[in-house]
Amino acid sequence: MAAWQSRATARIIALALICAAALTFALDRAFPPNLARLAITSGEALDRNGALLAVSPAPGGVWRLRTTTSDVDPAFLARLIATEDRHFWHHPGVNPAALARAAVQDLRAGHIVSGGSTLTMQTARLLEPRPRTVRSKLIEIARALQLEARYSKPEILSMWLTLAPYGGNLEGVRAASLAWFGKSPRALSAAEAALLVAIPRRPEALRPDRHADRAHALRDRILQADGGDIPNHRQPMPRHARLQLPPLDGRITTTLDLNLQSALEAIAREQIATLPDHASVALIIARNRTRQIEALTSGTGSGEGRGDALDLTRAIRSPGSALKPFIYAMAFEAGNAGPQTRLDDLPRRFGNYAPENFDRSFNGPVTMAEALRRSLNLPAVALLAQLGPAQFLDRVTASGIALHMPRRAIGQADPSLPLALGGAGITLRDLASLYEGLATDGSVTPLHLIADTTATPHPLVSQRAARTIAGILTQPFPDFGPDGIAWKTGTSWGGRDAWAMGFNATHTAGVWVGRPDGTPLPAATGRSLALPLLEKLFALLPAEPLPPAPPEPVSLRGTPATPKPDALRMLFPPPASTLSADGPITLRAMGGKRPLVFLVDGTKLQTDPARREASWHPPAPGFYKLTILDAEGTATHASVRVR
């Protein structure tokens, strides 16, 4: 009988344990830990090596950076556990002895004096903050047991490291370490680690910037030594390169290099002090082989300007003469000229357009190489007239780079010869992409700064033409800097934009100086303002000179001093195009000797003899043949359809 009763009791106990386990399991699944606070952390941007570049606050302006045990120094973890919960690695979430001791202290005092909380219980309270009551303590105990059943000890520690309060809007050890010491928690000294262990005990009462004496005393007690001074103010959170940060709890890995980025920003800060009021700078460095941006900075404005709030590497500005190398490259590729082709730099009109050089002088016979190095205007305009502004614009656009034509009252202006001198807008990023094409094989791939980005290269000019231009532009800097660098400056009309672009065998760099609102800078030129900055950028980079330029084809040597006359061609409309009959259509020509005659199906249109355009009002939809004749009898034709 006794044996039967013993077996029955054992079964009842076993059944009770099974029911309790089942109930515990059911309650655990029905009421899982609430990890919502843990999921709402700051967005982060990392450099190519994983270093922190920039962070954004979580909702409410809280700095809460996700932190794991691998993000902090093991010595910090050891000090934290020794101070807060020395049995952490062994208990199941609660420490009965500590709870009993705390209960006795609380009963004697008549209120909560010590909670006896383990780090796991503290984590439960951080996940779900509640008033400090007996009921809350019981819930924390249950949640601590639940956390220990679901997660490993390092995972629980990581939750604490992410959510621990540090006063004000600081939460988590990484945020606190950056704010108080400007460094990663992996690089803390013993005294710094002791302070970060101390503050979460009473985060508002121990803030170093408000209660330095209290924080100092508790820090030294934990350190068991005098740790010296403590910080009395917070440092700004990292915010390099004005990056567009990811959504909350997101991380992006960029192509930037933190060391190079910091050096670039230091150069910008130093230079801005020497610039006129309200001036800003934008700088960029990219690697030729990968087309990755390795450093960029912008908007370091002086005075009361808006530069600090803008990413001026994306601003559309006039490049001045900085597009000339690409006009020459296309002309060389087409066989229109070569580096030693000679041209008379003398006054000349192109229709109603009469370009002058920057210094309003002319230089007589010059080679194309000399004209490009000296950035003479008339040779560049003459080459663009041969190429055709529309064709030049189309080729640049087809390479994936946008040239922004000036806006008119209705739509945008058509491409014209002032393109050679900065008559279209471009961003610093896109201009650097074009120059990387000259530094490599003549193809263009838009630069990127997000890791693992893939892009397709688009042809712009031949590799031979690119290397020829690189050879022409390779010249010593005026003041200092390494050899073997090709560079070109640009100045927009009125001194509004000063540019300097350069490249060697490994990197391309670009500089823009100007005012964000587009107002002129006094006596600003690319050579005086931007080029000294470019020299400093290349002083940061490996000295890798460009390979020698290829020899010039024999057929292009010793050509006449004046390029071949402009051939007559129809700029608009292009052949086989479809036009709308909503209003008058302007027929435009390029080249040829004036006066020009415009014909539609053999009927002459009324035109101004001095102009290279005519207005045509299509009488009805249909197909039409357009003809243009110049004074020498040369003709060009186009068949179009009118809807």
Task: Write structural notes for this entry.
The chain has four domains: 1-30; 36-223, Orthogonal Bundle (Penicillin binding protein transpeptidase fold), CATH 1.10.3810; 320-556, Beta-lactamase (3-Layer(aba) Sandwich); 569-642, Sandwich (Immunoglobulin-like). A hairpin with a 2-residue loop joins β18 (597-600) and β19 (603-604). By secondary structure, the chain is α+β, with helices and mostly antiparallel strands. The strands form seven sheets. A five-stranded antiparallel beta sheet has the order 7-6-14-13-12, with helices on both faces. Strands 16-22-21-18-19 form a five-stranded mixed beta sheet, with no helix packed on it. A three-stranded mixed beta sheet has the order 2-1-5, with no helix packed on it. It is 33% helix and 16% strand. It has helices at 2-30, 36-39, 74-84, 96-109, 119-127, 134-150, 153-163, 173-181, 190-198, 212-223, 258-272, 324-334, 368-373, 377-387, 389-398, 428-439, 463-473, 526-539, and strands at 43-46, 52-56, 63-64, 170-171, 251-253, 280-287, 292-298, 342-345, 364-367, 443-444, 458-459, 486-491, 497-503, 507-514, 569-572, 578-579, 585-590, 597-600, 603-604, 613-616, 622-629, 635-642.
